[in-house]
Amino acid sequence: MTAPLVTSTPPGRDTGGVANDQSPVGVPVPPVQTAPASYQDADSAETQEWLESLDALVKNAGPRRARYIVQQLLQHAGDAGVPVPGVVRTDYVNTIGPAQEPEFPGDEALEERIANIDRWNAAVLVSRANRPGVGVGGHIASFASSATLYETGWNHFFRGPDAPGGGDQIFWQGHASPGMYARAFLEGRLSEDDLDSFRQELTGPGTGLPSYPHPRLMPGFWQFPTVSMGLGPIDSIYQARFNRYLQNRGIKDTSSQRVWAFLGDGEMDEVESLGALGVAAREGLDNLTWVVNCNLQRLDGPVRGNGKIIQELEGYFRGAGWNVVKVVWGREWDELFARDTDGVLAEAMANVADGQWQTYSVESGAYFREHFFGSDPKLAELVEGMSDEQLKGLRRGGHDPRKVYAAYKAATEHKGAPSVVIVQTVKGWGLKSFEARNATHQMKKLTKVDVKEFRDRLGLPIPDEALADLPPYYHPGEDSPEVRYLREKRNALGGSVPERRDPNKALDLPDDKVYAELKAGSGKQPVATTMATVRLIKDLVKIKGFGERVVPIIPDEARTFGLDALFPTAKIYSPHGQRYEAVDRALLLSYKESEQGQLLNEGITEAGSMGSMIAAGTAYSTHGEPMIPMYIFYSMFGFQRTGDQIWKFGDQLGRGFLLGATAGRTTLNGEGLQHEDGHSPLLASTNPACVYYDPAWAFEVGHIVKDGLRRMYGQDAENVFYYLTIYNEPYLQPAEPEGLDVDGLLKGLYRYAPAPQVHDGAPGAQILASGVAMQWALEAQQLLAQDWGVAADVWSATSWNELRREALSCDAHNLLNPDGEQQVPYITRTLAGTPGPVIAVSDYMRTVQDQVRPWVQHDFVSLGTDGFGLSDTRGALRRHFKVDAASIVVATLMQLARQGGVKPEAPREAVEKYQLGDIRAAGAGNTLGES
């Protein structure tokens, strides 16, 4: 049973700060913990004394005091190692009290000036990007709220790439990117022209700056794309986990490196943001620190107008096993808390909804005095003698560098669990007309009044006349105290961040021996391309000096795909090893976990598996260690389910192999609509970094993987990744043909089976097929020859996508060179001079094949599996979708009849001969393999 969102109490009862009818809604209240009935009380008299003591405390000191004592007892018991339920939610105050705060190690005044300069330049950058004639947008308010969070990290915590042991990996909040650019400008890494090129990557006066962190667009600067909200959080968890994987497997010492993720409170509504918290906790990722900037606003308004997002998040994180550090109030509140001996201030804070706190942010000190402190005589007494201006100056904790430093220090020193620093700020802080407004996220321009007020508040020496037109950038000078200070700090921490490096460390690639078995075929043994691919993975893993860099990734389907053979040898990675006797330990393929395990078996989480794919596929940059992720999954649950992460993988310049197994709409025939993939090639085609193949034969898989390894891990490595659709239907795998056109195979098309000899003058046709459709095409080739006297060539279309991509490149060249030599696409050249129509078939939607139609100079027809999937035999499904051999024959005859190559009635006769309208007449087809 889950806890209720709101716990009601009788009217007028003092709850001591616990939720009541007037409390903010949406804050989970932990259920009452009771001892199980089976527990035998060893000393009931002692137990009764404790209970009576509590009753007396409640009666004499009140519930508020009793609650405080119980909380302290629970905390003390936990510290003493007593296994009691933890406190899931604490008071709405800072976790670290003034007495526990460490000494601030820097020049606070100087750091504040640096932060103010960054605030100014970040705001001006966006404002100038919206000048007349440009108007490209941008966001001002996010960095304005988080500048102190970043500045504290830059000066004291963020390890740069030259730090001993390697730098930190930092997932910057996407909407705060202007602040990162502003800091880089102050450090001398970007110029004014560069700043004026924000969101103008083609027409700006300097180096174009992408709107958000995009490594592909700015590969020397950004490491991680984070603005697709929710993906930064989950991927940061799997990055921290992969760092431990590298450490435990002895590939790299990552013990000095930390993963930071800067997130927004509104972003926490994304499923991916909170969905993997348990992974980080159970793996003990104390190398991970999240900073959640709670400015209490999302894009349109309050995150929790009627609730308290900080308290809600604290419950989630503590409940998941994270170390939580809250930074709610600045130092100006410390004295008020010190004078509050009754706890009335903390209780009042707990009962104010976030929407009201936002109102306090924009209203005057007098309003704050009346509506907050005036609600209770004891509160009013706390602020006697304070002016309205002083009340207005009571800062939120995220704008106080001492509070932020104390929280970061505590988080980074915590052992055994990941840490989250939950910080309260004001969105748009420092910009009077922006602060805490519901529309502040969409506010992109500074008025002249805004500019002057902002300059004055930040204390920058910019004269009024400089503000007459576009506001200027401000740089205090190379020899200024600010620049010298920040460079000294960054040098001590290992260099500037963000920064991305690519050492281009080529691997010694396997020789042809590893592909020999696939080239030999399967003899009399039917083998699916999934099984052939898995066999290749096993062989690659065994290669000394290379195999340890292969990272097999599976979302709890290893047995489905045959990867369970790696369990006893490569083993499954677990930071805790295996602390139990496996139930199948006597079997040859027993389940084996190990701290040095190579296989990442992620459980039932495609999103988590992609998190590992991204971390492994970018290790060549983040760690200077090329790793080769090979992530195998149900093809339906790749580009469809985690397509945004795959897009992010391309943005992050990731390398590796995505293996869409059990592919096709009729091949995984028993699973039905939800599992049958008929469109992933189309989704793959939308990702410019994705090199897609749909191999029919095992030897094709070998050549594709070999070329992929060369392109991604050889000399002059390319920033691409491979996607192969492979199938669960076993059939006889032929040996590699003599004189195989490997170049054509890799380009996407080669003639596999030339037309059989029929008779002189026989009409011809071209059948293009990919994947399992090759079986139907070859059968159709024989039927056409035997029954209709048609000589058809069968071509293996290993990649419709790559054929189209190459043709588009030719078109682009020709458009710019109308009078020059015209490039002819590969598919056009290859099919030129061949007789008859072209019939293109796959186990996917017709649109997959239709991609190449514009460049085929023949009559063209495609056959595909448009529509939802169904459960039935493969034969029935293929007849239903009209892609089987008989359907290919009829489609070919229809085209030939129009051309005069066969008699007009031939198509109708074929329909009747093969009973094409009768699904039952097709038979069951191939019933082998997992279905």
Describe the 3D structure.
This protein has 931 residues and is of the alpha/beta class. The strands form five sheets. It has a six-stranded parallel sheet with strand order 10-7-11-12-14-13, sandwiched between helices. It has a five-stranded parallel sheet with strand order 1-2-3-5-4, sandwiched between helices. Strands 16-18-17-19-20 form a five-stranded mixed sheet. Helix 24 links the parallel strand 11 and strand 12. It is globular and about 110 Å long.
Short structural summary:
With 931 residues, the protein is of the alpha/beta class. Helix 28 links the parallel strand 17 and strand 18. Helix 28 (773-788) crosses helix 33.
